[in-house]
């Protein structure tokens, strides 16, 4: 078991945000990152592990890849801020699985925890590696009671776990979430291991400063009575206790969510209207909708990432099988298409997009339909993309999401992350 030595390598995943921080390694290497791609076709699910060439961005699977995901239907994955641990949510088993990451990129299963509700769909970790946020598609009907289901739909759930930075374990040996207090639909104050959120949740985002967390959901009410999406906003203290701010209407089918590294702007994709919505973040998690209209995307956007420098946004469009690239107005947060191509082709059905955290120079998508990973190089001056050497790269069947850690003799970017279905 060849575990990674303690060091300040940094967090990256499906949704990549961040602050710049110069770091170096002690030994030279042409490997800039290791990339981890979850795949859902087999039972149990699988994790393909790749090393990334620092010159070309080309991916090469390491020995023994793919690895078991520890459960069925893995749909989201992130890495810890120190690069020592990988976390995977398995939707069909209602589980979170922790893996230790070796210095050679190999992964070793450690802890498995079950969530209070069912069908976990998204997760993220704060930058200080003290809190893990997980979103369940269905919450329990009452604290400690049976959970909702597709036959009896109900709200989702946001769960917060304390993280042991030494072991990477969540919730201690008993996988215990932080206890939360909320007022239920009957105006009764409840104490539980979660807080209820909107129906059909799709993504979660924690600000880089750790003060607020946002959840996108496709219905504030059951789909039979509502066609409006929402963002649920919460303040969070250092122990993980959530305080609701308010719920904001957001398009009709919010599908992914991300914020910029300066904690000023929040972005939400709408897969029904094919658009990108912008908010300004005020103090204590308050959102103001942009005065500018939403920006058009290609067909069925499902994933979003902000580059670690905070200059560009990349949106993966599942039906169009491409990426849209946008430059961020640093004063208003308004995105505008980068010069050049209006869209960049990926493999079929991109379900996830990330910018590697080592140099912030390469971007990857997990392509669900054709079982590939697409790699591109990011021009930091323009935001434009060009295809990587030998891209696309084969993955295990039906890849769903991706995460990465930096490695080798190069500076890195500090990033915060979100990942989900």
TrEMBL record:
Pfam families: Lactonase. InterPro entries: Cycloisomerase_2, Lactonase_7-beta_prop, WD40/YVTN_repeat-like_dom_sf. It comes from the Bacteria. The keyword ATP-binding does not apply. Keywords: Carbohydrate metabolism, Glucose metabolism. PROSITE patterns: PROKAR_LIPOPROTEIN. The keyword Lipid metabolism does not apply. GO terms for molecular function: 6-phosphogluconolactonase activity. GO terms for biological process: glucose metabolic process. Belongs to the cycloisomerase 2 family. This is Beta-propeller fold lactonase family protein.
């Amino acid at each position: 078991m060849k575990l990674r030595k303690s060091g300040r390598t940094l967090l990256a995943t499906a949704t990549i945000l961040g602050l710049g921080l110069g770091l170096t390694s002690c030994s030279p290497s042409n490997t800039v990152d290791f990339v981890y791609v979850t795949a859902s076709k087999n039972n149990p699910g699988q994790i393909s592990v790749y090393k990334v060439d620092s010159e070309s961005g080309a991916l090469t699977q390491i020995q023994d890849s793919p690895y078991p995901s520890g459960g069925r239907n893995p749909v989201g994955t992130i890495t810890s801020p120190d690069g020592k641990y990988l976390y995977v949510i398995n939707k069909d088993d209602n589980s979170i699985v922790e893996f230790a990451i070796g210095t050679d990129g190999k992964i070793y299963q450690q802890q498995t925890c079950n969530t209070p509700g069912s069908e976990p769909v998204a997760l993220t970790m704060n930058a200080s590696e003290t809190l893990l946020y997980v979103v369940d598609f269905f919450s329990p009907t009452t604290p400690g009671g049976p959970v909702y289901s597709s036959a009896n739909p109900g709200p989702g759930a946001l769960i917060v776990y304390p993280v042991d930075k030494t072991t990477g374990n969540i919730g201690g040996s008993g996988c215990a979430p932080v206890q939360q207090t909320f007022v239920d639909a009957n105006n009764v104050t409840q104490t539980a291991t979660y807080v209820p959120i909107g129906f059909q949740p799709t993504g979660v985002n924690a600000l880089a400063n750790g003060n607020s967390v946002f959840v996108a959901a496709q219905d504030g009410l059951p789909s039979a009575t509502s066609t409006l999406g929402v963002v649920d906003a919460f303040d969070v203290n250092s122990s993980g206790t959530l305080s609701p701010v308010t719920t904001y209407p957001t398009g009709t089918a919010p599908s992914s969510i991300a914020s910029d590294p300066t904690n000023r702007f929040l972005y939400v994709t709408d897969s029904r209207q094919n658009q990108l919505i912008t908010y300004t973040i005020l103090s204590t998690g308050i959102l103001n909708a942009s005065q500018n209209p939403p920006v058009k995307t290609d067909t069925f956007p499902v994933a979003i990432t902000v580059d670690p420098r905070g200059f560009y946004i990349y949106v993966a469009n599942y039906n169009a099988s491409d990426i849209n690239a946008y430059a961020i107005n640093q004063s208003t947060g308004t995105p505008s298409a980068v010069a050049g191509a209006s869209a960049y082709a990926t493999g079929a059905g991109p379900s996830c997009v990330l910018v590697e955290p080592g140099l912030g120079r390469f971007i990857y998508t997990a392509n669900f339909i054709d079982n590939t990973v697409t790699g591109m190089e990011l021009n930091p001056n323009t935001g434009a993309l060009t295809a990587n050497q030998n891209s696309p790269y084969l993955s295990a069947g039906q890849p769903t999401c991706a995460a990465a850690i930096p490695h080798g003799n190069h500076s890195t970017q500090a990033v915060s992350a979100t990942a989900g279905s």
